Here is the input.
Amino acid sequence: MASLALEKVTKSFGKTDVIKGVDLDVREGEFIVFVGPSGCGKSTLLRIIAGLEDQTSGHVRIGDQVVDAVPPAKRGIAMVFQSYALYPHLNVRGNMGLALKQEGIPKAEIEARIKKAADILALDALLDRRPSELSGGQRQRVAIGRAIVRQPKLFLFDEPLSNLDAALRVNTRIEIAKLHRLLGATLVYVTHDQTEAMTLADRIVVLNGGRIEQVGSPMELYKNPANLFVAGFIGSPKMNFIGGAIAAEHGAQTLGIRPENLEIAADGPWSAMVSHVEHLGSDTYVYVEMAEHGLIAARIVGEALHQPGEMVRLKPVPEFLHLFDENGLALPRPA
Amino acid sequence: MSDIQVARRQRRWHIAVFLLPALIVYTAIMIVPLAQTLNLSLFHNDAQNAVHFVGIENFRTLFVEPRWAAQFWNALRNNFVFFLIHMVVQNPIGIALAALLSIPRLPGRAFYRTAFFVPTMLSFVIVGFAWKLILSPIWGVTPSILGAVHLKWLFAPWLGKESSALITVALISVWQFVGIPMMLIYAALLGIPDEVIEAAEMDGVVGPSQFWKIKLPLILPTIGIVSVLTFVGNFNAFDLIYSAQGALAGPNFSTDILGTFLYRTFFGFQLQLGDHYMGATIATVMFFIILAGVCAYLFLIQKRMRRYQF
Here is the structure.
């Protein structure tokens, strides 16, 4: 049974179509990530699921219920906001308990649920503090705690990590993944960061211009992007695209090759000039300038000693070539 | 070591230079008159018009000598009633209007906002005179408007009856100034981030309970400021009563507040001669009442109130 289903959902603000017909089925217990560039409609889609925006047409189903006319609080969902949106005048306990109190749940039950959430999130010592007395990471955990206590069928996360610093982001990412395994709940997560999407998702939904470009597991999208957009969006540094004669040789309009699938080898078919080298320790990114094709990135494991200005030859690993037709759609792999 | 000292001395000088203009202006228009007033309240003239230092004798006269005390306590009591009416009518209405204005996608929001705020920008003289005409039993529009809806029996010359004049004047003032709490609280409501309100929606805190549980606690600091402004404004009030009811604050001093009492005493009115020394005494008492009110707010209330950062 689908835990969440979107059926031909569209959304227009005045004459601007933000969501142009989205169909999606989310399975019970799945971790789904909406990813896409800013303005692609991913947050709007999440807000439609939450009930904070009304879709212009189409239906939203949560569990076995059509929730188009159901107010947010009655949809059996909980949401974690980008800015955490804690109630500044309530302490941590009050923040977590407000929704339950509003539902009329008995005091003892509220206390028990807060206690349990606080245990999971290591918030016990902070229950009597106000949001202004908490650090960013702690506020984030309170926001998640406020969602957990409601025991929702569906969790919605709206870019929850974007206000945290880089180190905390990695830690919190791991905690969210653990939390998902622990709770076993269905989770929809919005981010613009493809690394977050890759590391967290069971399935990624890539959105662009209000449409779903592709849905699939992280490695599926990585290995078999359905089109140029997905190919370019997933992976860092991004996939190199080469057109012209080289692509035509393979019977395609555009040829894609990921940086790690390029070798610098004397017998390589493509000649290029090194323009910049980035040493990351574990890897070296070598950016080369190829006549007619512009800047191409190659990722070499370990240390590679190349100097800008040096002429090198590039050798693609043939089984990792991606081919795209004139509409940007992926062509079947050459056998 | 000596370099640092030189640098410090130079810095001190330029601070003084920049502070000086403001200090001079403030001294000339605030501190000197205030000190003079306080000083004046300690003197009195005798029958030969010679001025003597009398200490706190003027205050004793004001508080206990029957002729003065009756007027003073009447004005003080009226002033408190005037203030209380503002607190229980003006500020709640201001909050309610602000809450209505902050409803998302309210049609005609700009029009309502302006309409409620316009009276605040009108002159007291116009407001006082206009309401005097509106409520006049002889040529006012109120009796005929009430008559049109068969409620004429409700009408009374409210401004002319001792029992209702003060309330009526206070309500006119409320009508004029309700825009100020409305604007301040409206701004505070707009300052609450959308995501907090959306979080409340998700938590099922909607409608009136959203106002009571989320919005009201977050605008409490602004309500505190509004209360202080109301207090200061009401205890300094004079103009509206003077223009609607005259300096005698009739009928039979039923609308007399400290401002009008001070005016009559200091400048004199009709048969009453002006008495600068007793006038200064009343002004001093008013100053201390307002000072006490503001201090009570600052030290007792504001200290316990939290300002929220979002």
Q: What stands out?
A: Chain A has two domains: 2-230, 237-324.
